[in-house]
Each structure stands twice: as structure tokens, then as C-alpha cells.
Amino acid sequence: MATMSLVIPCYNNEKMIPLFYAAAAEVVNTIQQTWENIDVEYWFIDDGSCDRTLDQLQQLHARAKFVHYISFSRNFGQEAAIYAGLQQATGKYVALMAGDPQILPNLLPQMLSAIIEEHYDIVVGTRQAARTEVPNLRAWFIKKINHFTKVKVNAPVGDCRLMTRQVLDAVMSLPEYNRFSLGIFNWVGFTTKYLAYQNDEDGDGQPTRGFWQVISDSVNGISGFLSGPLALVFYVGLTSFIAALIVLVVIVMRLLVLNDPANGWLALISIILLLGGIQLLCLGIVSKYIAEIYLETKHWPIYIAKEIK
User: Fold this and answer.
1) With contact defined as beta carbons under 8 Å apart, do 225 and 180 qualify?
2) How far apart are CA 279 and CA 240, in angstroms?
3) Would you write out the chain's pLDDT as a tens digit for each of its 309 residues?
4) What's the CA gap between 158 and 128, in Å, rounded?
5) Where are the alpha helices (DSSP H) in 177-227?
6) Where is the Glycosyltransferase 2-like domain (predicted)?
7) Are 81 and 304 in contact (CB under 8 A)?
């Protein structure tokens, strides 16, 4: 008997959890009729929700012992929730999914078929229609990230993927504190199939991850996974030096050849502001990397679980 683990990060999803579980139960019945040797376990991760998400998970666990949950001591972020769920999953096949009943019924049987019958290692759902401005922003960041790395991240990437145990073990072998799952999944390689789906919005019409959460995750992804910005600092500094040198030469030539001195204080202030701004930008990028290194050396846990059932 092979087990398939469903990993579902949750944050303020009290309305979605019952709908998701009901939809998942129907799909699981269909899967078990097709593949009789497939068993299923659920791992919900409550990422410090402020609503009744934990109560819903406790009720599900009381009704079905194959439904498990992890409750964080506070909000650690989606990356920590993903890591915690993957860490607990025991299945031969592991699905990472958003708690959205609109996505699961359409994709999971196709994803499992692609792995079992077509022998893919990873199957990823790709969204064809953006739900809100936040996913659009995430896709834009992914495209920018691809400029700095040889490991390309497919965009737009959806909220669901199914992988084999071999892929999961490879992903979990990367121990960094500041995780960027999209980059990690692509970095480990393996044969991947993309399934397109259309999903206009989450079931209740509201995204559970806000604008600033997407910004934070994207910045952490750039700094934690890519080395391109370090080279960018050098080239920006070199370009600014050359530009400042050209301005200085123009001012001197204008004075010597045309006998027309430039407004000295204006030119000086412009150059100072230009160089000062570039220096602050470069210092901020370098400081971000130093902060990442500092957090890695502290060896803090990625999450703290208040309750595991």
C-alpha cells in the first residue's frame, strides 16, 4: 500500500477548510477507485492564524485520524509552513497544495496519473488566469529572478504540485533557514510536467497572503537563492564611477575650451546625490546578504510547533 500525503499550508482559512476537505474526500474516493493501492494522509499547517482555523483542524482530526495538523506558536510565514508540512509527510507521493477546493478536484488525479503512468518526478499546476494583483506581482518577480540565475522558475506558477519521495528527500536535504521553495524545487532538477488550469479567485474571493507578504517572500528569494545581485553591485558601482568621471571631464573641458564655467554648486550637489544614492542602494543589498548569513549562523529553527496531531 502506497501513501499519498497532502500538505496544505493554512493562514486564516477557517471558511475554506471544510470546503477543501469535502472536495478532497470526493477526489480521494475517485483516486482509490482507479489506484486501489493508494492510501491518503492529510497534513494541514496552521501558520499562526487569527481566526478559527485551528478549531476547524481539530474537528477534522477528531473525525478522521488520517487528518493531521501542525499549529505554529506564531505566524512564521508560508515558507516555514511548507517546510513543516513536507518534513512531516510520510507518503511515497507528496502533494503541496493551497487550501482551495476549486483547484484540487481538477488537478490531483491528473497529477498522480502523470507520475505513476507517465513516470514524471514532479507535476506542477500552472495558473492561466491571475486571480488578483498579488499573483500578478509574484509572477513579475519570478520573471525578474530568472534574469539572475541559470535555474529558471516557471511563471505563472500555481499553488499545487505533486512529487515523488525522491524529489522530497532532495528538497529536504537543503537546510537553509531563509527558504525560497520555488527556486529550490527548480534547483533540485528531476523531470517535470506542467498542467495548466484556470482559477479566477480563491474560494471566498479574498487572498490569504497580502501584498507585503509577497514582497517579503520575493526579496528573500532573490537574496537567499541568487548570487546575481552581488555582481550587480559591482557593475552599478563601476557605471556610476564612469558616469561621474565623464561629467567631471565635461565640466573641465567646458571651462578650458569654452571659458564657460558650469554652475559649480549645482554640479557638485548632483554628483553627490547620484553617488550617495548608488552607495546607499549597494550598501542595502550587501547588508541584506550579511543579514541572511547572520540568520543562518544562528541556527534558529525554521518554525516552532505549538501542537502536532
Assistant:
1) yes
2) 10
3) 788 999 999 888 888 888 888 888 888 888 888 887 888 999 999 988 888 889 999 999 998 889 999 999 988 888 889 999 999 999 999 998 876 555 556 788 888 889 989 999 999 887 765 444 445 555 555 565 555 555 555 555 556 889 999 999 998 998 787 777 777 888 888 898 888 776 544 444 444 455 555 555 555 555 555 555 555 666 666 677 677 777 777 777 777 777 766 566 656 766 776 777 677 677 767 777 777 777 777 778 888 999 898
4) 9
5) 181-187, 211-225
6) 5-170
7) no
CA 73 to chain centre: 21
Amino acid at 168: L
Quote the longest CA-to-CA distance of the chain. 91
The answer to whether the CB of 159 falls within 8 A of the CB of 97 is yes
In terms of DSSP bridges, do strands 305-308 and 67-72 run parallel, antiparallel, or are they unpaired? Answer: antiparallel
Side chain identity at residue 252, one-letter code: V
The identity of residue 199, as a single letter, is N
* DSSP 8-class letter at 152: P
Query: Homologous superfamily of 2-226 in CATH?
Result: Spore Coat Polysaccharide Biosynthesis Protein SpsA; Chain A (3.90.550.10)
Has this prediction a pTM greater than 0.85? no
Q: Which residue has the cell 474571493?
A: 205
C-alpha cell at 216: 517579503
How do the domains of the chain map onto residue ranges?
2-226, 228-298
| Cis amide prior to 156 (ω within 30 degrees) | yes
Residue of 104, 105, 123, 102 whose CA lies nearest to 200? 102
